[in-house]
Amino acid sequence: MSDCIIAASILSADFARLGEEVDNVLAAGADWVHFDVMDNHYVPNLTIGPMVCEALRKHGVSAPIDVHLMIEPVDRIVPDFAKAGASLISFHPEASRHVHRTIQLIKSHGCRAGLVLNPATPVDILDWALPDLDLVLLMSVNPGFGGQAFIASALDKLRMVRDMIDRSGWPVRLEIDGGVKVGNIGEIAAAGADTFVAGSAIFGAKDYAKVVAAMRREVAAVKQTPA
């Protein structure tokens, strides 16, 4: 579970040529396509829905599509994203009246399930939900907009959740989203993340492959450093 996954957030891509952008970022070495779904209700922004996910699949995208639902209520839209081709669907506990029921709903439609914790959301919920999850996503910015600065306290939270996952023995990925870039990804990896969402850091560069490769080098350097 220690392998590094780079999930390219298309929130920062050029939507006028989204298919081409996704092709290019995957060719540049990204592993997953990260899909930010915002409803102008749970978060103060409005983005994309299942039709865009389905369009990418029809375009020929075969890489995992990592759907982060920043919507409330969440259950209504889960089947639509599963049908549209989502590989993994993550949601915020505040957006679900019954967290385990939402996890079960996601899995019943053939997708992996993730739970998302905002910067100020306590980790205690994981004491009860972790065995049923495939991924925990920690937000290192407050959700709603791309290009925000990394909130430093997320590092302590990463360490806490990494310890919880390791002690549990469950094969749960630990993802981080918000302000991830070449300059801090090593520190983030050292704190325990194994899956890294990067949007503006990649799509804002001229050479996507150069940025992705630099990120992997920083993560690899951390793994090679003796504890």
Structure write-up:
Helix content is 37%, strand content 19%. The two termini are 18 Å apart. It has a single domain, classed as TIM Barrel. It is α/β, with parallel strands linked by helices and 227 residues long. Strands 1-2-3-4-5-6-7-8 form an 8-stranded parallel β-barrel, surrounded by 5 helices. The chain is globular, with a radius of gyration of 16 Å.
Question: What is the fold's blueprint, element by element?
Answer:
Layout: E1 5-9, H1 18-27, E2 32-38, H2 50-59, E3 65-70, H3 78-84, E4 88-91, H4 99-108, E5 112-117, H5 126-129, E6 135-139, H6 154-168, E7 173-177, H7 185-190, E8 195-198, H8 200-203, H9 208-224
Parallel strand pairs: 1-2, 1-8, 2-3, 3-4, 4-5, 5-6, 6-7, 7-8
> What's the helix-strand series?
EHEHEHEHEHEHEHEHH
Counted by DSSP, the helix tally is 9
Helix content: 25-40%
CATH H-level name... which superfamily?
Aldolase class I
Total beta strand runs? 8
Rounded mean pLDDT score? 95
Entry keywords:
227 residues, alpha/beta, TIM Barrel, eight-stranded parallel β-barrel, 37% helix, globular
Briefly characterize the structure.
With 227 residues, this protein is an alpha/beta fold. The chain has nine helices and eight strands. It has helices spanning 18-27, 50-59, 78-84, 99-108, 126-129, 154-168, 185-190, 200-203, 208-224, and strands at residues 5-9, 32-38, 65-70, 88-91, 112-117, 135-139, 173-177, 195-198.
